[in-house]
Amino acid sequence: MQYLKLLRPKHWAKNAFLFIPLFFAGEIFNVDKILLLLLGFACFSMLASSIYIINDYRDIEADRAHPTKCKRPLASGAVSKNAALGIFFALVVAGLGGAYLLGLKFMFVLSIYFVLNLAYSFGLKNISIVDIFIVSAGFVLRVKAGGVLAVIAVSEWLMLMVFLLALFMAIAKRRDDIVIKIASGKDVRLASKGYNMDFLNVSLALVSAVIIVTYLMYTMDPDTMAHFHTYRLYYTTIFVIAGLMRYLQITYVENDTGSPTKILYKDRFIQITIFLWILSFYVIIYLLPAILPANKSFFE
User: Domain 1-154, what fold?
Assistant: First the structure.
């Protein structure tokens, strides 16, 4: 069980971003591409787990001082350092080997993700602002990898929105670190020295506003409407705003944004909001075009 915990399988949910290009391209029912993306998901998950292992390996002492991270397999001593390194190398070989079989372009994107996150683990995570930008770039690379694997062009709008959303969550997570610092008097990570509550609060407000404006511009962009053959995408903005407001509520009111993955698995409001956003987008781009002309509404 501790060896499985070392891989952090719950965090594999982040790799679902590989499927985003397929969904936005209107090809979500393309079985061949879904199977291909599932294989890519497995490769990405192996590389991501290898990064988690090396990150935990280097942070053993710091994690032991953290109220929750002290329970991690390496920090608690449940898994030895040698065993962890063995699993790390096995995952790297399997992940990159599988990526090579899926295609050189996919392997190239996955390699960039691996090298970037390796650099993050070996020091860049200690540089404030740089740390959250690297985390955000990881999500963009997931989307890019999905587009490469499914042979789908990924729009600049989509890449920008994914980056902003990931940046928003990374800032919220750093704010949670400051909350812990205030309560315990200890920095949970070196990069925390470059942050304070006022800076992170302003950053959250700034990025959340930019996300909403960017999403609205994306849905009302003439090229987007021409691509999806509908003007109705802006209807889905209500779920984007609701999801952001709930995340801000968790951040400011509940002071509990330590793990975006945990929130995704446990918060019913966020889950319902994401489901309704996906459902509304599905109805608009998959079902309505067959029922209504692109320039007509329900009320005409």
Answer: Tetracycline Repressor; domain 2 (1.10.357)
